[in-house]
Amino acid sequence: MKHFIILAIGILPIVTLSGQNSKSMQDFIYPYPVHQITLSNGVELAYIDEGKGDFTLLFIHGLGSYLPAWKKNITELSTQYRCIGLDLPGYGKSDKGDHTYNMSFFANIIRAFITHLQLERVVLVGHSMGGQIAITAVLQQPNIAERLVLVAPAGFETFREEEAQWLRNIYNPLMLKATSVEQIRRNFELNFVQFPEDAEFMYEDRIYMRETEEYDRYCHMIPKCVASMLDEPVFQRLNELRLPVLVVYGEADALIPNRFLHPKLTTQTVAEIGAKSIPNSQLILLPQAGHFVQWEQARLLNEAIKAFLTP
To answer: pTM for this structure?
Structure first.
């Protein structure tokens, strides 16, 4: 039977309000100075650039997230490496244009960003959807990065065509706009073993987002991202990755595998199947960590990345 790749849905968008006003995602407060560049294709990107070192770590966030999600990693790792985190187009402070918002588009953005800044010795660090984007970028251009770190990546779990179609159907702009505030909270909590107080700002930013002028476009973008993770699978091509790859999952990930579609499948099984498909990979399962492993077990993940990059 034909299989496709299931995605990590992650944190879902928020409830709608009637009307819009002058509020903007540009109002978000970020933990580092924000830089803006315009790529050759006209796409404007917001990013942060901290630290120096032999490697340049480029952090790619997941579905419905943004670059502050890497705060705990960049703060520590920037003492040894150059750390760059960006908002993907459609997210945070970056371009909100009428783009395809598929995996190939995002991968092309990553490649163009690296070229624009003339980055060297790049390590792509992708979380959830960002992991699938990182994989796609390397498959498109193998020499774009020296190493790859996949944190709870989407793209490892396979599922049947009818399951993929079900997911495409339920993720639509109207559904996203109708999400209740209570459900928003539950969606955030699903990303963690225990939702921490220091992640509260993510929830508050999401609630604020519903009042921004970009919200309607955001709700139309998210389904494009979801559909693309389904329509541009990477699992069958994992064996083409020739660079060193570190795969990290939280043992208590409640989003991978999809508990509704695959209740008998475990995170460990998904992780092991994916990692074994990559010739030069190592797998780490972190305890007491859910899908948002880079926040919930930041110290352990940072140590794992340092060890991975140490000769």
So the answer is: 0.93
